[in-house]
């Protein structure tokens, strides 16, 4: 008897999973498979790999309760499928469609070389990247008209329930192991479908009310913390959409603001589909020859969170410690690296890729290109975040800095806010406990950056 395969790639849930729903309808035994090499074209960073394997463990437990197993194997999808053909008679393989053209090509090549029919189903987006375009171009280059059009035409399918299926026979599965050096992430995160639902419910029960006004506050727990759960498909974006609409939360200022953030996710994948080299080539061609300076010493100080700008350092240390960084801090730290230090945005993008639990192949490079000024709908090159001003606005009491920069735990708020400007430093030496002075003068760095960007 034939056995069908459900291939997990970047969606690790059972609720509202179209590929699972379609596979279960066939009425033949179903094998659940994850091939680590098949995730994406870029090697996963340390934190993302930790999340992936934890999510696999969680999924493995859920499937076990339903009489099935998750077959976990390493290697290329082609070699794994060819090996499975020696163990069982494969009928069809079901998976979510990919929105990265380079990964889509790999899947088609695997189908061709193995002879296993691939049946692709809708992935975890509200609208397919090729399903929307302006009249005059193949794709949108500005977010606002893109999102307006989405809101006009969006009608995502109603979320699917978890179906019943016929379990396949048990096969050999490799053990799912996690890097012991990443165990510290356990104190900040609990991957899995249930945790994703808990985070979403926390948003619905309180955070969404003031999401529009508080989401940029780095010192508050005012964001949804759903980004890694969405990155790994532990919650369906269609379920989020329909839940907000069924409770009429989409009409509230907070609900509108949250949906707009989901819109940026859609826009990033829209761009990745039309510009597959988003992670290593500037969208704006004129930036290809920009004279990035690439000072390794300055890059290392930025990576270590020792720039002398408390807001920047707090963000970088939060990233290193927890595998996540507040979105406002992401913008500030990215601007500091690319504009103040004139380090190539790709160096920063790769560092974030390695350390973020929510490192996303579309959103991460999209955000970096936006900040550097070389992407679609990019921030104007003359928009350079002032780390001192950002700190005063979005960490007004200095609590975010005190939490992540222990040298400044005893510093006054006014002292913290003055540290980036040595001439106005109000901190006593005993308050800073060895905290370094600024590695660059922001005003001078801004002037230098503007002169270079003006030449583009």
What is the CA-atom radius of gyration, in angstroms? Answer: 23 Å
CATH architecture label name of the largest domain? Orthogonal Bundle
User: Which parts are unreliable, with pLDDT below 50 for 5 consecutive residues or more?
Assistant: none
How does the major sheet shape up?
5 strands, parallel
Quaternary state reads single chain
| Mean pLDDT reading | 94
Question: Strand pairing plus helix content: what structural class?
Answer: mainly alpha
Strand content range? 5-15%
Number of helices: 20
Q: Count the E strands.
A: 5
Specify the CATH homologous superfamily of the largest domain.
DNA Cyclobutane Dipyrimidine Photolyase, subunit A, domain 3
Task: Give the number of domains.
Answer: 3
The geometry reads as globular
Q: Strands of the biggest beta sheet: in what spatial order?
A: 3-2-1-4-5
Q: Which fold does the CATH topology of the largest domain refer to?
A: DNA Cyclobutane Dipyrimidine Photolyase, subunit A, domain 3
- CATH class descriptor name of the largest domain: Mainly Alpha
Helical residue percent band: 40-55%
């Amino acid at each position: 008897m034939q056995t069908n395969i459900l291939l997990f790639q970047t969606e690790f849930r059972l609720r509202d999973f179209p590929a699972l729903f379609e596979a279960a309808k066939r009425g033949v035994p179903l094998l659940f498979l994850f091939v680590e090499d098949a995730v994406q074209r870029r090697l996963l960073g340390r934190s993302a790999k930790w999340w992936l394997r934890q999510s696999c463990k969680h999924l493995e437990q859920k499937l076990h309760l339903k009489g099935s197993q998750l077959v976990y194997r390493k290697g290329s999808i082609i070699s794994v499928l060819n090996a499975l053909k020696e163990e069982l008679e494969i009928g069809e393989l079901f998976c979510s469609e990919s929105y990265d053209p380079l990964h889509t090509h790999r899947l088609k090549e695997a189908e061709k070389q193995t002879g296993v029919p691939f049946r692709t189903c809708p992935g975890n987006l509200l609208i397919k990247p090729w399903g929307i375009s302006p009249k005059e171009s193949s794709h949108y280059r500005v977010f606002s008209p893109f999102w307006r059009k989405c809101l006009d035409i969006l009608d995502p399918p109603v979320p699917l329930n978890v179906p019943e299926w016929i379990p396949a026979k048990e096969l050999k599965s490799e053990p799912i192991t996690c890097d012991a050096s990443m165990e510290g992430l356990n104190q900040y995160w609990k991957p899995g479908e249930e945790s994703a639902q808990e985070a979403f419910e926390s948003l619905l029960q309180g955070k969404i009310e003031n999401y529009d006004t508080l989401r940029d506050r780095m010192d508050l727990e005012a964001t949804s913390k759903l980004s890694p759960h969405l990155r790994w498909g532990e919650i369906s974006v269609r379920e989020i959409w329909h839940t907000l609409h069924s409770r009429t939360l989409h009409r509230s200022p907070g609900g509108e603001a949250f949906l707009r953030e989901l819109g940026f996710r859609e826009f990033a994948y829209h761009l990745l589909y039309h510009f597959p080299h988003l992670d290593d080539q500037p969208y704006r061609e004129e930036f290809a020859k920009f004279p990035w300076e690439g000072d390794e010493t300055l890059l290392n100080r930025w990576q270590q969170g020792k720039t002398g700008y408390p807001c920047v350092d707090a963000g970088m240390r939060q990233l290193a410690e927890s595998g996540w960084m507040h979105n406002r801090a992401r913008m500030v730290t990215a601007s500091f690296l690319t504009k103040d230090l004139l380090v190539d945005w790709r160096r920063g993008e790769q560092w974030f890729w390695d350390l973020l639990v929510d490192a996303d192949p579309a959103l991460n490079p999209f955000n970096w290109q936006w900040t550097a000024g070389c992407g679609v709908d990019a921030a104007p090159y003359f928009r350079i975040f002032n780390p001192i001003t950002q700190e005063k606005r979005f960490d007004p009491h200095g609590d975010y800095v005190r939490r992540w920069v222990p040298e400044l735990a005893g510093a006054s708020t006014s002292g913290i806010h003055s540290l980036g400007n040595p001439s106005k430093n109000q901190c006593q030496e005993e308050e800073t406990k060895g905290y370094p002075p600024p590695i660059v003068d922001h005003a001078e760095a801004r002037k230098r950056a503007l002169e270079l960007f003006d030449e583009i």
